[in-house]
Design a protein that fits this description.
The structure is a homodimer of 229-residue chains. Chain A is an alpha/beta fold. Helices cover 38% and strands 21% of the residues of chain A. Chain B binds a DNA duplex (30 and 30 nucleotides) through helix 6 and helix 8. Chains A, B: It comes from Algoriphagus oliviformis.
DNA sequence: CCTTGATTTCACGATTTTTTTATAAAAGTA
DNA sequence: TACTTTTATAAAAAAATCGTGAAATCAAGG
């Protein structure tokens, strides 16, 4: 799952009301949502949709959550998918059973949307700053620091807005490599955003204005690259 | 604790769900597990069970974790037992308080089993426990003192309410590092509190009002950071 | 129960960032 | 050179984000 890509959530519940509430809240938070109304459909949808998280009701017609969970865990592509059980209190399956079949977490109904949202986003939060990917790139006379969102150019500190910073960071991370505009959009803006490719030009220009002309070069007809040498 | 023998863990929490999750995961990792649902029972069980590690919820009916910890520390046979506090949010009892009563570590809920397991096994790897918690941060012209919840700014003493203090303390502890609102909420408010991300803004403003504008800077679209010179 | 202060929510406007649009300049091609 | 294509630049439009004041809620202490 790339940084910019929406996190995909599959909601599985036979209660249309609950599905709708969850779907609405998840979409509002920027998640991409798919739904299924029973276990059998859930497996089918999960295979196609490749969700990052599955919210799985335990009590369902046709095929219950536990059995569904087991089946999903068989699918190699969904090995790293988080499965969260939704369960009413005192339902017949104990929590232990839930974990036995490979659930990662479970939440008891009634569901409080705010709580659920924060629980899900916690799943994808960086564990700690320390074990984070390297945050500093030193290239030429620039030090590009993702931790503080600043550029240090031989002593001077330059601050860039988010998009400009990420553009420079991305190019600097892959020096001497040419990226087309679409490629840059996809990697920095994300795959589901619709902006014109010309937008990249404007950002490039702003970055050049701020750090100087000697770093990013244009390859006509192809794209841009961070220039070494 | 001997090499061959299973490491014994006592889990103390009033939430049966949490007890079950922990128990399940610990047993899977090969630990021997006992449980207790409140502080009083915990002391009793600990005496009999002689655990090597105690996972101790702070908030409990009857007798809270801090008091329980104190009592356990009185028992000579349990002098070498590791005690790990489980706490929902940082604020409940400051870390300092926890370490003061003899805790060896603490983790915030929600508990991520994998992280907990590695933390436990780490306890037995390193003998040197209790890495001392610093209680004072000196940064720029500020002295931020956790013990008294005050800031000293070149002679003047400023007192901040808890949340504002924690916020400043956290940022100052990680200077120059940008934290998103969610990240700050998670680290300062805790993971089981659901407040809007914009709440952070208001607290930031209050801190700025009180200590001045030259410390915390905004990175638009990203978050806040404590700014070094 | 009342008061006070802390915390959280809300709404609006100001500001900045991001995107679009239009035009000029540059580069490539025949 | 004339023509086409592509990029740079400037300026306008749109969108997002943040700061602020104020109200609402919550908590602690008297």
């Amino acid at each position: 799952m790339s940084e910019k890509q929406k996190i995909k959530v599959l909601v599985v519940d036979d209660e249309p009301d609950i599905v709708e509430i969850l779907k609405y809240n998840l979409q509002k938070e920027g998640y991409e949502v798919a739904t299924a109304e029973d276990g059998i459909k859930a497996v089918k949808t999960a295979t196609k949709f490749q969700p990052d998280v599955i919210l799985l009701d335990i009590m369902m017609p046709n095929q219950d959550g536990v059995e569904t969970c087991l089946q999903i865990r068989q699918i190699p592509e969904l090995k790293n998918t988080f499965i969260i059980f939704l369960t009413a209190r005192m339902e017949e399956y104990s929590e232990v059973a839930a974990f036995d079949v490979g659930a990662d977490d479970y939440i008891t109904k009634p569901i409080k949307p705010r709580a659920l949202m924060s629980r899900i986003s916690a799943l994808f939060r960086r564990e700690s700053k320390k074990e984070q990917e390297q945050t500093q790139i030193k290239i030429k006379d620039l030090t590009i620091d993702r931790g503080s969102y600043t550029i240090d150019k031989s002593g001077k500190t330059i601050t860039l807005p988010k998009k400009e910073f990420e553009l420079l960071y991305f190019l600097a991370k892959n020096p001497n490599m040419v990226f087309g505009r679409d490629e840059l959009l996809h990697n920095i803006w994300g795959s589901d955003v619709f902006v014109l490719a010309r937008t990249v030009d404007v950002h490039i220009r702003k970055v050049r204005e701020k750090i100087g002309e000697d770093y990013i070069s244009t390859v006509k007809g192809v794209g841009y690259k961070f220039d070494l040498g």
